[in-house]
Amino acid sequence: MLAYPKFKLTPSEQEELLADYLPYAQVMTLPDPLPIVPACRDPFDLPFLQLASAGKATLVTGDRDLLVLAGSTPIRIIGVESFIEQFSAT
Asked: Is the pTM of this model over 0.85?
């Protein structure tokens, strides 16, 4: 995702950002069978829903196809702005 054009990061910037982030990340392997998740307009978003479900994680996203599911699924889905507000308040 760091290579997405909207982020406008060079390969070295992507590597630097990833190196800064990895110490705080936890590796999650998708279980077999995969968790049942709500239908999504974009099938490429399914792995993110499955990972959030399996890891009992909050999914922070700017993706409208995921945000439309917020509140209608057991998976907690919040927008980036909401996350920043909540994170800043703590």
From this structure: no
